[in-house]
């Protein structure tokens, strides 16, 4: 089962088990989610979806809002800012679609900038699970608190789940070996890209709040950091730089480039075109680590 | 000893003078003053929630909250200063009695709809020009169609929407399934009756007619 299927099952379960939980949708996912007195489908009205979530939180509920990424956090961005953040109310926003799951759908259904714009607002925890089990872990935890939590699901997923919070080191390189940090569903491609390289590979599901201490621990005596993110390239570069502010560091940021990408096709084609497949990641790392004589 | 004293409608001009330092202003011209007073004096029950969506020009709101002992009268003195809890748009984190933080138009009504979904009786105040914002109509449509009877809205109609609402803005609420009453926004008895017309079966809007915006 993919992340989306897992989320629908978990959301239905949460509605049954916890009277504080309410689900707010705007048509997307309504067919897969159970009808329930606390499942409010507001129709194709995304500003209202976020406003209603805020009103439910005002009354002590734990709202979960779900839609396609552009319609969950971009169209109602000011509602995310004002109705939730400025009111100091909590909600769990769960998006589907990621950067290019809807490759055939075109730009209107793609939102590689989602994490960057949510991260620009204070107080948000952002999870980018790379596996359905990781989605389950972060979603269950989010149900148990009143924080503002953004969970970004994708059709892309890693071969296996990774346990542990914050930044988890999966493989240690030699002393001063470059650190490669993969976020969410980029891990399998990153591991394939670096299999024969002397690098430290670390992983996180949670780019915000960014685990600066974990990054320093993983960095060790290194000089180079490669950040591999499945959304807009550079989204977490400033966090890496801040974590290593007292160290001479070079940072390579791999991710979806900024630009109007006018192609349809498949997610795999988009992944490759953005340099996010194993081959593209490897090529970027090789360029980055090759000494420049000039 | 500091005590919270409940004051009356006649005390509002004095409170507004403390808020602004302006002694000559004719406070009766504030478009929301009478509706806010009647709501807090006669309509709102202890379990009801009030959300001021039209956060622009909150002087009347702060004066009414102070008169009702919901904020300290002393807080009025440094209105808008760096350390004041009272700004030119209210912030619920600084002033819990404010209900919501507002200023950006079109946010209160959708939030009110969400709160009303829990069964809470909610009152939300908007302006006629604020209704230009499409986000309001998402909430008006949804609340009307599902018969959200715990939701009450009052529109302060000072005829300030540039493109107007032909036939009266209440017609648009009625079309979506609301009950609606237009009243004299200066007549306390008329305002109270307009709120009392809510049936609880479907959402209710009161359009409080006041003088044209000057």
Please summarize what this structure is.
The complex is a heterodimer of chains A (294) and B (214). Chain A has helices spanning 3-17, 46-58, 69-74, 77-86, 114-119, 132-143, 187-194, 212-219, 237-243, 267-273, 278-289; strands spanning 21-25, 39-41, 62-68, 91-96, 124-127, 148-152, 168-171, 179-183, 200-204, 224-232, 250-256.
What features would you describe in this structure?
The complex is a heterodimer of chains A (about 290) and B (about 210). Chain A has helices at about 5-15, 45-60, 70-75, 75-85, 115-120, 130-145, 185-195, 210-220, 235-245, 265-275, 280-290, and strands at about 20-25, 40, 60-70, 90-95, 125, 150, 170, 180-185, 200-205, 225-230, 250-255. Chain A has about 290 residues and is α/β, with parallel strands linked by helices. A six-stranded parallel beta sheet of chain A has the order 2-1-3-4-6-5, with helices on both faces. Chain A has a five-stranded mixed beta sheet with strand order 7-9-8-10-11, sandwiched between helices. In chain A, helix 1 (about 5-15) packs parallel to helix 6, helix 2 (about 45-60) packs parallel to helix 4 (about 75-85) and helix 8 packs across helix 9 (about 235-245). The model of chain A has no long low-confidence stretch (mean pLDDT about 95). By secondary structure, chain B is of the alpha/beta class. Chain B has seven helices and five strands. Chain B has helices at about 10-20, 35-45, 60-65, 110-115, 135-145, 170-175, 190-195, and strands spanning about 50, 120-125, 150-155, 180-185, 205-210. In chain B, helix 2 packs parallel to helix 3 (about 60-65). The radius of gyration of chain B is 16 Å and the shape is globular. The model of chain B has no long low-confidence stretch (mean pLDDT about 95). The interface of A and B includes residues 24, 54, 58, 83 and 86 of A.
